[in-house]
From TrEMBL:
Pfam families: IL8
Domain of life (superkingdom): Eukaryota
Keywords: Cytokine, Signal
Name listed for the protein in its UniProt record: Chemokine interleukin-8-like domain-containing protein
A GO cellular component annotation in the UniProt record: extracellular space
GO biological process, one term: immune response
Domain Chemokine interleukin-8-like: residue ranges: 31-79
GO MF annotation terms: chemokine activity
Source organism (scientific name): Pangasianodon hypophthalmus (Striped catfish)
Signal peptide: 1-22
Length: 81
């Protein structure tokens, strides 16, 4: 009976180790790298300090824009032009 418990626990540990190896993006990416809602207005080009593209793992692609007033605004590509 004790041996079957040990085998069961080792089996769970092995499955969890394989599961974590199979998902490398889960440990690298963070929700801060993705946009879930987008700014619909226009941003004057002179106000843009930095532009960072969202990661390929995000459900919605866009850009994270930094301005003097806002540390991170999510916009679609057309809003930057």
């Amino acid at each position: 009976m004790k041996m079957s418990r040990v085998v069961l626990v080792l089996g769970f540990v092995l499955i969890m180790a394989l599961y974590l190896e199979a998902q490398p993006l889960a440990s690298i990416s963070s929700p801060e790298d993705c946009c879930f809602s987008f700014f619909k207005g226009k941003i004057p080009p002179q106000n843009i300090l930095e532009v960072k593209k969202t990661g390929p793992h995000c459900s919605q692609q866009g850009f994270i824009v930094t301005t003097p007033k806002f540390s991170s605004l999510c916009v679609h590509e057309v809003a930057i032009k």
